[in-house]
Amino acid sequence: MGFFDDHRDLLVQALQAARSRGYWSAFPEIPSGKIYGETARADGEAAFATLLDRPFEIDQPANGRVGREVSPLGKPLGITYPKSEPAALIAAARNAGGAWAAASVEERVGVALEMLARINRQSFLFGNAVMHTSGQAFPMAFQAGGPHAQDRGLEAVAYAYDEMTRVPRQARWEKPQGKSPPLLLDKAYRIVPRGIALVIACATFPTWNSYPGLFASLVTGNAVIVKPHPQAILPLALTVRIGREVLREAGFDPNVLLLAADEPDAPVTKELALDPAVGIVDFTGSPVFGRWLRENVRHAVLFTEEAGVNSVVIESTDDFGGMCRNLAFSLSLYSGQMCTAPQNIYVPRGGIDTDEGHKSFDEVAAGIAGAIDDLLSDRARAENVLGAIQSEETLKRIEAARRLGRIVRDSSPVDGAGGARTATPLIVAVDAADEHAYLEERFGPISFVIAVATAEEAIERAARSAKEKGAITAALYSTRETLIDRASEVFARAGVALSVNLTGAIYVNQSAAFSDYHVTGANPAGTACLTDSAFVANRFHIATMRRPMAA
Amino acid sequence: MGFFDDHRDLLVQALQAARSRGYWSAFPEIPSGKIYGETARADGEAAFATLLDRPFEIDQPANGRVGREVSPLGKPLGITYPKSEPAALIAAARNAGGAWAAASVEERVGVALEMLARINRQSFLFGNAVMHTSGQAFPMAFQAGGPHAQDRGLEAVAYAYDEMTRVPRQARWEKPQGKSPPLLLDKAYRIVPRGIALVIACATFPTWNSYPGLFASLVTGNAVIVKPHPQAILPLALTVRIGREVLREAGFDPNVLLLAADEPDAPVTKELALDPAVGIVDFTGSPVFGRWLRENVRHAVLFTEEAGVNSVVIESTDDFGGMCRNLAFSLSLYSGQMCTAPQNIYVPRGGIDTDEGHKSFDEVAAGIAGAIDDLLSDRARAENVLGAIQSEETLKRIEAARRLGRIVRDSSPVDGAGGARTATPLIVAVDAADEHAYLEERFGPISFVIAVATAEEAIERAARSAKEKGAITAALYSTRETLIDRASEVFARAGVALSVNLTGAIYVNQSAAFSDYHVTGANPAGTACLTDSAFVANRFHIATMRRPMAA
């Protein structure tokens, strides 16, 4: 019970935070030497450099090496990972899973919390690993790939712990029989895992999006096979290696946690997902593969985050400058490669009322475009906000999007970014009728300013597109409380998280663990929410044993 | 808030009972005049008689009448119900659903608890309605169709209430910013239903199996369409009529709860299940239709209870007589037409040790058969235990099963049962190798005594058949604690509830609300458990709205 006792206070705080949902964070997001140690930054960079151009060792069943990651900043990482056949991974997970399933809730939760604590101490290394796979600039790679991901993992552990400990281990069942002696049974309940859990991660947020499913499945007793995106293996290889170290120290077979690295031309995901021993699949990625999983994974519980078309509706504002700056940042952050980034900005054809007087449709579009130019005018700041483009495909999407309407702000590489793959935001103006242009997800720094008759029409269109195409976030700018109420109701029904009148240093893209429910599961953007009870409660079942009471 | 306040104490007790899982029941199971009123029995019979041979009125959208129920006791009921087109039901549910979704959790829970209270007061009427549709004898029809079903409904309400009230309505999010003022957001959370819920009920336990899904969907804000089995409409028509009365009194559109009655040659279930407005489907019935639902219902959350092959493993006993009597009752109760009834009784070829000395395989089989003969030797008792056979198909299955092995005890109609369709238990002896005989569900009073080498082999076979064919219950008779431990673990992993050494007045078929988890969702017997968190948590989603704090 060592690890559990070590982290018990943190768990209690996490449980409370998940209920009250005010601001709370377990893992400091500031990349500061005062918190992480004076030499942490340099140590993290050095540790990352040491990993390059050599085999990354994990002592799991393997018969070769794989790995061809290329940093979006330009350089191949040169790292290879153990190549493990799906059947070997399944067999190893199955062997390791028995004792893990039989361990107490406290033992498993203790192991998970210790993993998170050790991962946290290496946050600078994770920041470098996430930066050189996702293309995020370092400040974001540190935060989102480090402490924020760890917070999301902890949140899932807390939810799972809560659900499992709602079930008593035993009960005495005593049924009165009038004047006769009561009927007496001893009952015992046990938490039984679903089987092996497969976690399929993405390239843009390799840790943030995978930790909730990984840790939820792990603490509910399932052995976990982590299948990273072939371009973002390193952050999860580090995670698995740390996890195996903790498992071993706690006396478990480290094969409770395994890495399934592969290369784009020899993918192993489908074979793993179809294995009947797999009882849970968590997936973050494209709707094309999401659909394949939804159609083919019948034997396992499936949690997906796929894609969406996020909307902004602008009706009026009492801070035009703040609104434009806020949206400029949301559109620029990590070059729009966030599942929460806005794509479709609806503006009434007749313009809007603002604190700077009436602004025409074109003036609103120009205001946002101008705020982007201002934000990116400083090259260092531009690099820190934009980061790099994770996938070559995104550059092709930008090129195609240029032809979809009138270019309000063109995309260009960042000057002096060297070998990095970069692109500033493209904004295209279209009419609401041009649905072919804006009603599909165009992942990357691509957005549309869409002319509509009224804000009410915009809300209806945005909600309908959420229901049909999926959406995770929406933003509204309005000084009319009745419109805000209406939008709250409509977007809630469409399964979209709504942010209203953000003009300062909070952005629609941001989703805070313990407070914001990320994805609802109620539209095609995904089938699961990070994190609610439904995300954890189905990862185990409850088995009852009953017998007459011992005399 | 009237109804909620009326029943608040009951709800609090239900929440506590669901956590402690000792014996607790809200609705008295004894059909006594002292509890239900001195004239309750006669009133229930009279009320039932009044319903026969005439239209049953429900004021919902309809364009004709349907209904051709025939009592398994022999007489057509002669009752017709409103015929409502699926599209009309969906439209009515959708119209009614908006205000229901917008109501507070307390309003909805109050309405549900009042429905259950009024249903409870009519338990004698429900007993008659369930008897004349399912074929259960009155004592069981009263208990299982009345108070026990009501308890299961209340249990689902309590779980759903618990999950919904874990989410605060609002939160203040205050993020420190060092020496700068904190970032401040107001957040509001809302519970949003999935859409319209469809509840597809079965003919054998029309209320017990449908109330959990019905009430869980209702209180989480979904309008509910109840689709009864065409041979067991009446108990659910009564439920819907009472429910609509309460809804109307509480100021809601009664179309929040609708009946979709149909006839066998013009079924409406598939059309309803495929409607994109349907967000939840609960189903109890055959694996054939269950499979169709699993393959075709992609747009909705699906909860099923299908079928299973339940096993008994006999290794040794210190109460041979008690064991035989206990199993005799389990095999005879409602003529084996329970999803929890045993089918496969594994006995070592070499016999077993008992308090009466060693018993050979044949002596064990004869002991159980003899105990059935004793139990059924009194005609009144036989009728009260066996009830009638719900479906003609079951008689055909008995006929076919006679040829599958050596008949240990033959099935026959009950003497003097008049026009009722009856059949006593058939027991067939087979060898473990005859898997074609016993490894599929043969619903009804059909069981196999199966010769195995050892009890260990039997446990492995029973667990494997549970994993492959589904199973809800298992029973073990053994005086060896190590074998009991082993069986507990193996059956838990197979997703089966295990009863050990039942020799008295508790039977493996029985599943008590608030204590026994009915079905695990972990084998093909069904995808859901009555009731755990997973059964309720996914019937709604949580929508977040956030905005900078008002000054």
UniProtKB/TrEMBL annotation, chains A, B:
SUPFAM superfamilies: ALDH-like. Residues 87-491 form the Aldehyde dehydrogenase domain. It holds the Pfam family Aldedh. Keywords: NAD, Oxidoreductase. GO terms for cellular component: cytoplasmic side of plasma membrane. GO terms for biological process: L-proline catabolic process to L-glutamate. One of its GO terms (molecular function) is L-glutamate gamma-semialdehyde dehydrogenase activity. InterPro entries: Ald_DH/histidinol_DH, Ald_DH_C, Ald_DH_N, Aldehyde_DH_dom, PaaN_2, Proline_metab_enzyme. This is Phenylacetic acid degradation protein PaaN. The gene is paaN.
